[in-house]
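Sample intake sheet
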Amino acid sequence: MIRKLAFAATLLLSTPLFAQVPVEATMAVPRVPGQNPNGMHIYIRAGLKTHLAGQHDYPQFLADWSKLLTAKGAVVDGSLHAPSAEELATTDVLILDRGDTGFTTPVERAALQAYVKRGGGIVVLHDAECGPDPADMASLVGAGKKHGEKNYTLEASVPYTIVDRANPIMAGMTDLTLTDEAFFKMTWATNPAPHILATAIVADTPSAAGHAGEVAPQIWTYEHTLPGGKPARAFVWMQGHIYANYANPQIQAMLLRGIAWAAGKPVDTLVDYKPAPRPAG
């Protein structure tokens, strides 16, 4: 009798009804507290810190802005490496805040090209558009910066002139002057051309010899369609050399609007976000 009962128990346990199921497979993924699950999906591609203290602090941007954007109603992911095709598949807007992102592997380049072809948005900050092929970068974001050229001022005054005050991204922006770094000698897309939002006069620094006094675009948008693809958007802010400038209220609001615009969302989606009230008790 004991043998029969043992055999019956073994038979029952071996059937699908009693098959062991991993605990995690039976549980729903917990919701991130304070996250808006219906928000735009943002991926921050950062990098290791470079330069002096307070400069090019890409990891700090990833930490600070993942929190800020989450509080503004976005669903945020990010890393210190290029996003994979799988990660980009669920992304509305890719923020590039790492030097020399123009240097990519063939796999990374193919993933980015496919992302833009399906209409994915890009936001470029500071020297993220620097690389070996500025024309290729220009095809994605409107302009490219050639790695190795003296096309920068280093730390200097960057006096903005807002050239499109009616653009909603520039709401509240004034002709302020930042202490930061400006770029010039860019390779520009021409068909279509980017839409310039603000320019700055190139400061007279040793690295800008021969270009001091030139007027160079520093903020722009770019709307284009890659062959065989859907319309895509890019927003570019050339500053960010000095990390503290990200906390400037005018700059922060402009970036939030630029991110939303590049994602194809209403431009004030992040700026005006109000979280739903938490249930009482």
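Comment: Residues 134 and 144 are 4 Å apart (CA to CA). The first strand starts at residue 41 and ends at 45.
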